[in-house]
User: Which sequence fits this backbone?
């Protein structure tokens, strides 16, 4: 996760309770956190609706299921698939922090390419079997049938 004040990695995560069900979350690097915590204007002086730092996050809610982002932060569960779009700005830094990426790049099992090749070969053999039966080449059809059975059993 990146610092909200600069582009460095955030090392301190601060959640301030503003009112009931209203929270202010800050993700800061070490330098910005020291400025925020130890300089008088950083903590109380600049905050508030007039400074423009009041987050919209706590009051925002999903139009589909009605879950608020605060509820997600408390439970760790979203309410519906629409929430990913609704809370995209807030979820993106969380996903980057947890997974290092925001795009899923799955792995293919090592046996998968072999399985795909076998499925492809089975499809071709079945097609050849139908053609052999239509041509009334029953010896070829029997040979193809036996090969299909052998592949299916392995």
Assistant:
């Amino acid at each position: 996760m990146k610092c909200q004040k600069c582009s460095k990695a955030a090392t301190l995560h601060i959640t301030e309770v503003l009112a009931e069900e209203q929270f202010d979350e800050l993700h800061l690097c070490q330098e910005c956190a020291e400025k925020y915590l130890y300089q008088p204007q950083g903590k109380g002086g600049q905050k508030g609706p007039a400074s423009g730092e009041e987050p919209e996050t706590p009051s925002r809610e999903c139009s589909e299921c009605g879950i608020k982002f605060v509820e997600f932060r408390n439970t760790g569960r979203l309410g519906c698939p629409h929430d990913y779009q609704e809370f995209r700005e807030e979820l993106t830094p969380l996903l980057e922090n947890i997974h290092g990426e925001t795009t899923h790049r799955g792995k293919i099992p090592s046996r998968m390419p072999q399985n795909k090749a076998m499925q492809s070969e089975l499809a071709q053999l079945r097609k050849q079997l139908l053609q052999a039966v239509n041509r009334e080449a029953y010896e070829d059809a029997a040979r193809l049938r036996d090969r299909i059975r052998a592949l299916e059993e392995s």
Observations:
- The longest strand covers residues 12-19.
- The longest helix spans residues 112-135.
- Residues 46 and 53 are 8 Å apart (CA to CA).
- The helical segments are 30-38, 40-45, 69-75, 83-86, 88-99, 112-135, 138-153.
